[in-house]
Write a structure and sequence with these properties.
Chain lengths: 308, 308
């Protein structure tokens, strides 16, 4: 097996044969009898070499007049999605893709045991425009000692809706989208992919489980299969319509200590990076989107996809 | 006077002699006796040729089950900051720079008369990485029929603080920063420039009036002079330390119908574009900043600036 070179002549640290270039692995899906940090894996989880947060230490909270500080305790891991440098997530077989999602679930369930952690965000940056520094297919996981502000805002809105209507707003959205069909990109028995109403970005996509599910970590086997198929369909469509765009992908799950929420519903947000976020967006929190989601859905749903 | 060429061989629509390449001008600072849409101006305001919002029409609000819609009524203008294609804001003489800020004030006071408008954001994108499509120095103005969500969030936080403490949080911040001096980049009698505590971006800067001021449109002459000097100082420093970075600049003012607020304080936020906003930031609303603001201030304050 040859270690693949990435840009320039630096060997790719995520390729088999280069396992010593990452910190020692946390876990892997691999052939029976393989030794850790050796080839023979097909999904491999390693600590990020340049972590934003570390597990070591304790959380101290201090004040400085107006300001509040706390230590950056947490975890920052890399999920290498395939041993094959030339493949992207959507190029994997159904079985391999499922193992990536099982890895997400395993890591959440493992990190959940640490009572200092409050939230886990799984995300993926693909392409230089999306902030990716390595081309080899990978996702990242950051565990934080507080619930992120964006998730809090989303939960607060969903909770308000639940208080008034007694229903999950995400379930209502799934129902409305499936009825109207103007923003549906694809659906299968477990999932629906939509271009959300009033999308911030051109060709932004949300993938939601059709049934009410607040905890990704409790995803049943049948839904892992359906999720893999949906993700494959969505990225094949985006690649065809937008010529392999750079994108950010985030998995919004419920907080680690808030399971079985009636009002929250996990989902994936996919944001192709086609335009710059500029002064207007930073100043207002509003987004100018030249491609209405209804039109994006029109383009995306016409693409023929390859399963398997 | 020669019309300057921008990238490629397309003539720059913001250069003197090319006035017909923009929609007819709204206002200008120019020599006495000059005809509209002719050379002889040094600040020129025109409607954006590709507006995000238009003044024509009425605001209709409609519902579609879960979703709310309203028309995109508003205004989108371009403030061409100088006739000189080769100059940036910070290269202008004190007098010329003041005319740019008087133009901001004039436009706010004029648009305020339209009761359908609720907010005006003045912003500036410089450089391709910041989303600018033209190199000729310019700012933009977007007037919206609702108060932007970011401004609302900022106001809500400031209002909460005022309710509890009876003081403007921005005034308290100015006071703490001037006392601690670890994040102060520059100060003059009217303004202070700081690298804000827990900045989102490397070398992010906020410029605040030292006295409590909620309404940019009521800025006194003495403060326009001091603001010009502060902006010049800040950009000379950023250009030297970061080698002419791309940046976004936003002026956060109070809403058009909320003047003389005790709890809000107008300010300018400057965000150099040195890194990509990626999955973690989009997913959490948290920002990983490799350059602590205290260190950025250290670098920036050492630069010698040229006044005048």
């Amino acid at each position: 097996m040859h270690a693949r070179e990435s840009q320039g002549s630096v060997p790719c640290p995520f390729c088999p044969g280069n396992e010593e270039k990452t910190p020692p692995e946390i876990s892997a899906y691999s052939s029976p009898g393989r030794l850790p940090n050796r080839p023979g894996w097909w999904v491999r989880v390693v600590p990020n070499k340049y972590p934003a947060l570390r597990v070591e230490g304790q959380i101290h909270r201090t004040g400085d007049h107006l300001y509040d500080k706390m230590d950056g305790l947490g975890a920052h891991e890399v999920i290498i999605e395939t041993e094959d440098h030339g493949k992207q997530l959507e190029d994997l077989s159904d079985e391999r893709l499922q193992d990536v999602f099982w890895t997400y679930r395993d890591r959440i369930n493992d990190l959940k045991k640490d009572p200092r952690l409050e939230y886990i965000l799984i995300f993926k940056n693909r392409g230089v425009a999306a902030g990716a520094s390595l081309a080899h297919a990978h996702s990242q996981l950051i565990a934080t000692p507080m619930v992120p502000i964006r998730v809090k805002q989303e939960m607060r809105g969903a909770d308000d809706y639940y208080e008034r209507r007694g229903r999950c707003i995400f379930c209502d959205m799934v129902q409305q989208e499936l009825a109207q069909k103007v923003r549906v990109v694809d659906e299968n028995p477990g999932f629906v992919a939509i271009t959300p109403f009033a999308s911030r970005f051109p060709f932004e996509i949300s993938v939601l489980p059709k049934k009410h599910r607040s905890d990704f970590s409790e995803i049943p086997k049948s839904e892992v299969i359906e999720l893999g198929r949906m993700i494959k369909s969505v990225f094949q469509r985006l690649n065809r319509v937008l010529d392999n765009p750079s994108y950010n992908f985030v998995l919004h799950d419920s907080p680690l200590k808030d399971s079985h929420l009636e009002y929250y519903h996990w989902h994936i947000e996919i944001m192709p990076k086609l335009s710059q976020t500029a002064g207007f967006e930073w100043g207002t929190g509003f987004y100018i989107n030249p491609t209405p989601p209804e039109q994006a859905a029109e383009y995306l749903k016409e693409i023929e996809t390859i399963a398997g």
